[in-house]
Amino acid sequence: MLTASVTLFGVVFLCNDRYEKTGGSGSAAAFFFMFVSNAAGLSVMLIVNRFHISATAFTLWMGVAAALDSALYTVCSLKALGRINLSLYAVFAMLGGMLLPLLTGILFYREPMTLAIGICVLLIIAALALTVKKDGRRGGFIWYAGVFVFNGLAGVLSKIFTEAPFPKTDAASYSIWAAAFTALIGGIGLLIVFRSLSRPGIAALLWSAGGGAVSRVANYWLVLALLVLPASVQYPFVTGGTMIVSTLLAFAVGQRPSKRELLAVGLSFLGILALVLIKI
């Protein structure tokens, strides 16, 4: 399940990158992306859950929190992708996506810090450090930092949902509510900035819908995996794997990762091997 999610997340990064190229990165483009991608994700999750949806107060509040996090991540992603390439964008997203849930699991849920996890995290941090480049354009760092924080918070919210003792729904219903609330935010935003929205092409529509559907399924699988795996194990695996997949996809779309980025992928692979093979 984790390997399938990793593959899908690589596809999501590609879809986000292609949408930025075809749909733009302004506020109107971001709201359009939020609405279309989450409407598509909502539709897919309703099919996956056989059009069954349940609700509790806790699930609804968590859905709202996840939607706000997703909206902020979308804005930061589109802004960042206007400045950096696909593989480097994945660095900021995946570093946040690994460290914040990992620290949450260890500090607040008493998950053990094993040798395998330590080696994996150090190798992946070293891999990410290899890919860091200076951005000469002013104001860019805030978008990179936003990608780091808000992608990490998605994992933290999933961990909180699975571990909280409050009455809650199944994971699919949580994903459905998160998609619905995010689509609502996008729809309200579109109404506000509609006049500044240039007519989106069919390519932008397809990339946003495809990315949204794939992302929602991938995140749903991660929530299911958290029922049996600690966050401190799951998210380093996802981070290293997604770096590998996104770099391979960068080749597929004509972007040539540097030697440093390829070395980073090799270190990520070693980190995953350490996580899987070392038993202490």
Distance N to C terminus: 23 Å
Mean pLDDT: 83
Structural class, by secondary structure, is mainly alpha
Number of helices: 10
Strand content: under 5%
Rounded to the nearest angstrom, the radius of gyration is: 18 Å
Q: Please give the share of residues in helix.
A: over 70%
What labels would you give this structure?
mainly alpha, globular, 0% strand
Walkthrough of the structure:
- With 280 residues, the chain is an all-alpha fold.
- Helix content is 79%, strand content 0%.
- It has 10 helices and no strands.
- It has helices at 2-23, 27-48, 57-81, 86-108, 115-131, 141-163, 171-193, 202-225, 231-252, 259-277.
- Helix 1 packs across helix 9 (231-252) and helix 5 runs antiparallel to helix 10.
- The longest helix is centred in the N-terminal third of the chain and has 25 residues, at 57-81.
- The model has no long low-confidence stretch (mean pLDDT 83).
In short:
With 280 residues, the chain is mainly α.
Secondary structure layout:
Elements: H1 2-23, H2 27-48, H3 57-81, H4 86-108, H5 115-131, H6 141-163, H7 171-193, H8 202-225, H9 231-252, H10 259-277
Helix pairs in contact: 1-3, 1-8, 1-9, 2-3, 2-7, 2-8, 3-6, 3-7, 4-5, 4-6, 4-9, 5-9, 5-10, 7-8, 9-10
